[in-house]
Amino acid sequence: MSKSMSTSMILLGILAVIVGIFAVAWPGVTILALVILFAIYAFMDAALQAARTFTSRTAGPVFGHLLLALIDLAAGVVALVWPAPTAFVLVIIVAAWALVSGLAEFFASFRSGETAGTRALLILSGLVSVLFGVLLFARPGVGAVTLALLFGLYNLIYGFSQITAGVQLRQLDRDVNPLAPLHKAG
């Protein structure tokens, strides 16, 4: 079991490293891929909402599901027809998320009962998130490329950590297996 788990960790790590390399080498393609993934998600959700339209028994949910299906369909079409404005909107959403979550972390640091270390980490991470959000709002075009690069760097780090963990697990399995007969003898 450990061998199959270590192999899957190593393969996942290699895949993440490959994705990371592509994202860092071609951030524009990465942005376009994210917009296309958003469009696919919107189309899939439109299909699910349309299916729910036909399973609802009352008019209110039918109208609501139909409306959501049409909005999802429109969002998917807009994303494919106008990928640049869609990428801009996605950056604005990430900027708003970073700003709001950063402010929440900052203010959460002042709750009573927090240790000094926890408080410092919450303040620091909150300020970094707020700064990131402000920078994305100020320069959304650069923000899209930055998000693609961060996505790539994250995948590189995650990939190398998965490869390392898989190799270590495989090594641990090799070290433990020779001891198994001794354990059964006792």
Structure description:
This protein has 186 residues and is an all-alpha fold. Helix content is 90%, strand content 0%. It has seven helices and no strands. Helix 3 packs across helix 4, helix 4 packs across helix 6 and helix 5 crosses helix 6. The chain is extended. The protein starts with a helix and ends with a helix.
Sequence-ordered SSE layout with sheet pairings:
Blueprint: H1 2-25, H2 27-55, H3 59-81, H4 83-108, H5 116-138, H6 140-176, H7 180-185
Helix pairs in contact: 1-2, 1-6, 2-3, 2-4, 2-6, 3-4, 4-5, 4-6, 5-6
- The H/E string reads HHHHHHH
List segments where confidence is low: pLDDT < 50 over at least 5 consecutive residues.
none
Quote the distance from N terminus to C terminus: 23 Å
Largest sheet: none
Pick out its properties.
extended, 90% helix, 7 helices
Give a nutshell description of this structure.
With 186 residues, this protein is mainly alpha-helical. It contains seven helices and no strands.
